[in-house]
Structures
1.
Amino acid sequence: MVKTLLSIFIALGLLAAAAIFEEIFVDKQFDKFEAALETLDVKVRNETASRGDAESVRTLWEEEKKVLHIVIPHRDIGYVDYWLGEAVSLIETKNYDDALSKIDVLLTICEQIPETYRITFENVF
Amino acid sequence: MTAIFQKHSSRHNISLHRHTIGMGLIFLRTAIIFVVLLAIMRLMGKRQIGEMQPFELVITLLIAELACIPMADTAIPLLYGIVSMVAIFLLHQLVLLIDLKCKPIKTVIGGKPSIVINKNGIDISQLKRNHLDLSDLIESMRTAGYFSLDEVAYALYEANGQFTAMPREDAPKENKISLPVLIVENGKYDQKNLALTKTDTAFFEQILREQKVRSVRNVYVLTLDGTGKIYMQCKGEKFRSFRVRLPEGSSW
């Protein structure tokens, strides 16, 4: 009886801790990445962005995704890689209009991935 | 999030398919599936259960699937599978606790034994409630070592689907020269068994008249064995067992 109760509390505690940690962690990682993207977005709008700026965002993402792989399906990370890769090469060729649309996609992903972790009716069902 | 992005210039027009789910969501979704699956298993009756409690069967079904998905699909973090399995463990422990502490809920979750044969014969309503028919009952009896319906005083399906029978103290010791066969099941003659026993409907219609049964439609079960012993139960009545003289050449 005591053992059963103990196992229930331990399992419940582990699940709650994992859920809370994940929500905070994913939010934090994407907030950081989103902030870097927004800075890049401003520079692209002003047509002052260089390859170095784009590469620094990519380096930041490369660092973050190492740990994100543990909690996020790898396909989702692959989509960010894809759009970021396109944005970097467009910035390199100074094609700022097209680069802007890629950064817009990335910003949307940054908003939507943490959203998918919220316990809401549409996410549960 | 198997993201399908529609390429638009405005960021608000980008559609993103959400398949990514968090651990809190995994727990909730696992719990919902568990409850729904358990309810369905209970509604399906004892026929579907086998030799497990309904919740044990549900856990067996879910665990196998949950373990396989992250194992086979490398794109899914292993943590997703682990979280859902811990959720299943938690639900299992909760059900065990309810089993021990709360009998009325235990009955709701695990069901209760169904007495399908009592002193009056077969309880048709109990069979129907568990989605079983006469042939299922006869099959269960044969598996338990009883070949005639009047050999047992009580028979029941346990909550886990197992069949248990209590033999009749006053069961006559008879020569079992051939297997009792089902002649009438739920108001209909079994033509195959009529042919097997080399009898016909006229022979049984005569017996029914002698037993003051108006129509074969009123008979729920009628079996005949090689010694001419008939077990008959009309709908809503107590069973009766009697012996008849078999027609010439009738043997099987």
2.
Amino acid sequence: MSSAFLQQLLSRRDTWRGRDLDGAARGGRPTGFAGLDRLLSQGGWPAQGLVELLCPLPCPPLLHLLLPALAGDQPGARLIANPPERPSARALARAGVPLERLLVLHGERDGLLRACYEAAASDTVATLLLWAPGGALPAGTLRRLHLGAQQGRCLLVLARPRRAARQPSPAPLRLELDCPAPGELTVTVHKQPGGRPGERCHLSLLPEHLRRPPPATATLPVLTRRPAAAHEPTPALPGRPAEPPGREAPRP
Amino acid sequence: MSALWLALHYPLLDLEAGDGPVDRPRALVHRHRVLQANPAARAAGVETGLRLATARALCEALEVREADDGARDRALRHQGRQLLALTPQVCPAPPASLLLEVGGCLKLFGGFQGLLARIDRYRLHCPFTTRLGLGPTPLAAWHLTDPPPLEGVPETARFQAWLAQLTLDQLDLEPRLRERLQAPGFRTLGELYPLPRPALGKRFGAPFLDWLQRLLGEKPDPRRPLAPPRPFRRRRDFDDPLDNLDHLHRPMETLLGELATDLERHQESVAAIRWHLYLNNGHRDTLVIRRAHPGHDVATWLDLTRRRLEHQVLEAPVLGLGLDGGRPRPRNPALADLFPDPGARAPLAGLLEKLAAEPALRLYRPDRDPGHLPEETERGRAPLERPPAPAAPPAAPATPEDRPLWLLDPPRPLSVRDAVPHWRDRPLSLFPQEERFSQPWHDQAARRYHVAHHPDGLCCWVFQDDRDGWWLQGFF
């Protein structure tokens, strides 16, 4: 293979280079977790572009992982798009997230993706956290999001279900998340520029007293008061129709 | 920069207020006497003061009009608003004149000649007969009509000389006062110049002295400028009903252009506009377009309108389009950075406006609320709402409690098996620590909160109500 042909191949925009020597090889945004910083070849989150997190959806600890990226006083807005539940403003504020620059966006699929592209490309949003809406995400859409995020200097974190790992993706960084125990998270590299897949690290996200498993005696009927009668009426919250307790809402 | 006043007289405004100058003979009549006649009527011999019967005998085709003060004032105000494009100081001088202070805007129009060119263009397109006056004071401009061709602004002495040549008959004085002035032998205004002012006041009255001093610029002559018309409201009707929303873009652009011109004229901007679509079935659809900060540019308003229109469904063809301009605010442009910070981001307002204009998206800013129950401590503020003062007292750090990062609102019921709450069919293991939240008095039920671990690797926040039901409130 001639060197000219190689150069030509390398200069194609859709050629993915495992080790990007000329670009921002280092100098990523610190993630706030020393273990994760060591794992990532850039020493942190990339400054811009698409990052895929493959996790069992919905993944509540995922927001913990990104709290340090959302916090801080760097310029630019933070956008949380399509979260599975309501992020608590009080907890976010305590973690140092500037609420006046935080937005939460909901919408149906196409409008949501378009709005996210627009937000990422607008050079306004510094961090965008998007829970992938239902349905397949074609590679073209992901590529558009990646290019938009690069254009708008935005770190776009896309949370996708773990089964998407088999699909190819234009995201330079893909990480797989796993929750082995409450308050703990295992991060496995699935794809990384300048890195090897399969490397992993363990992070603890919650304070010690919440991570420690409760004492065995506390699975307790002691705590739970016995029902006064066998035909206990179904619990009902004020102002809400009673629902049978066995039928919880299905979670995506 | 010295003051320079322009006067625009509309001598035949009473006759022309309705439909402009006409070639037919026409006369204004009051109590069977001719008050005014247009050139065609005068050519036929009709003159001011003639009896109506005589005038009719002289000119058979004479069209007779009664004075309509309302129509004349409306026409004068309308002309005044057009002239607001030249200067903000347009003062109506009833019955049929406008006085414009133009000393302050000479530079804007490229000097005196440029200004006169603008005035000439205006007079060319004006539907009424006009006469121009020029002077250093409003009264002088009113009197010095039809100035000779000028190269630049004449100096004050020249104006004084012109004023001196005015005969007393040309002055805007009451007939009795004019007779009293003429009695001692005065003929022109210039003959009054050398006389001592106090003596003039003593002899002809203080009002005359005041008038003379204002005319000569020895005393200020404050005038109330014409107020700009408010609010902006336009409607455009279509000959053929439009059933495609894309066809609305062009008329919308035109209307927004008019709005922008209007705002430009008054140096104002608006924060919200309202579109009215008048439908064929008699209904009216209203679209409200808001912006984060008041603006005045056509492009942004049009872009936001298009985004909003994309989600609009037409029930019937559109017969007309209306635009309400909202409340105008004075424009207060921010200072631009000479050397912008390279790390700086584009302002958030632009993105907010775009996202808020899409009705299919729900956008909010999370914020704290002083509620009691956990789900009441959250609230979403509208994206375009003005953020509150940043001096909000941080009340939260006083209580170092563990609060979950995710809140479920409303809480989800949990199934209970063997007195142990289950979620996703797997048992939760509870921490023994308990936190109580009493509900409002009308429920009388306390909630007892526990932290619980779920086998899926989740840390949950659950509570038990008084009726032993278990609920999932949040995730850590």
